[in-house]
Amino acid sequence: MAYPFQLGLQDATSPIMEELLHFHDHTLMIVFLISSLVLYIISLMLTTKLTHTSTMDAQEVETVWTILPAIILILIALPSLRILYMMDEINNPSLTVKTMGHQWYWSYEYTDYEDLNFDSYMIPTQELKPGELRLLEVDNRVVLPIEVTIRMLISSEDVLHSWAVPSLGLKTDAIPGRLNQTTLMAMRPGLYYGQCSEICGSNHSFMPIVLELVPLSHFEKWSASML
User: Fold this and answer.
1) What are the residue ranges spanned by the domains of the chain?
2) Distance CA 89, CA 91 (A)
3) How would DSSP label each residue in 152-206?
4) pLDDT tens, position by position, for the chain (227 residues)?
5) E strand or H helix at 66, and its extent?
6) Where's the Cytochrome oxidase subunit II transmembrane region profile domain (predicted)?
7) Which of 36, 51, 152, 225 lies at a C-alpha separation of 20 to 30 Å from 199?
8) 141/210 Cα distance (integer angstroms)
């Protein structure tokens, strides 16, 4: 999760988030180079009296400043489209979890099991234990196995919500009457926090999401104890 005064993105936990981090760095470097070039040209124009009368009329210059931006846009668009299609792929998920947004809590249903579902509410501040995080802890965590492709089906019972976990690179809208889906695969165990990312009413900021990613053997024991 994020730490105080953090400037960058959260550490990647899934392959998709690693790709997003690389694309972020790639794009940021292009923006930095363009900004540096523009700043250099502006500083030259302000600090020198030398002018070239034919520069602004040169056909070669106009050709360069037309083609170069097009090439830069292509260098940004191609990796972006690749990641976009990767995020939409559903490759034989081993587990399916249905998530429903409510005002103002989440409910989860493990559709591969006959009767495994629960509601997940935020723990009030006065009930927090030492070491727990304010506005982020829930009474029922979503326990999922690591290194397994998981399909999340996301919808809503009332108004628009958004199911988002930044360290996994996930953000999917929960829309009433519509079933959206996304996939996740965590590469290491741990607790991963998220929140509703769509303004959904007065208690919008009190809809945290907590994923507890564990090895497959631990998940099987947990699921057996819940049935």
Assistant:
1) 15-88, 95-226
2) 6
3) EEEEESSS-EEEEEGGGTEEEEE-BT--EEEEE--SS-EEEEEEE-S--STTGGG
4) 778 888 888 888 999 999 999 999 999 999 999 999 999 988 988 888 766 666 666 677 788 888 999 999 999 999 999 999 988 887 789 999 999 999 889 999 999 998 899 999 999 999 999 988 999 999 999 999 999 999 999 999 999 999 999 999 999 999 999 999 999 999 999 999 999 999 988 889 899 999 999 999 999 999 999 87
5) helix 59-88
6) 1-91
7) 152
8) 5
Could you give the 3-state DSSP secondary structure of residue 62?
helix
Q: What is the pTM of this model?
A: 0.84
The two beta strands, 170-174 and 142-145, are unpaired
DSSP-assigned states of every residue in 7-24: -SPPPP-SHHHHHHHHHH
> Per CATH, the architecture of 15-88 is what?
Orthogonal Bundle (1.10)
Q: Which two tokens stand for residue 188?
A: 């290491």
Neighbours of 193 (CB within 10 A): 19
Rounded Cα distance, 189 and 56, in Å: 59
Homologous superfamily in CATH for domain 95-226: Cupredoxins -  blue copper proteins (2.60.40.420)
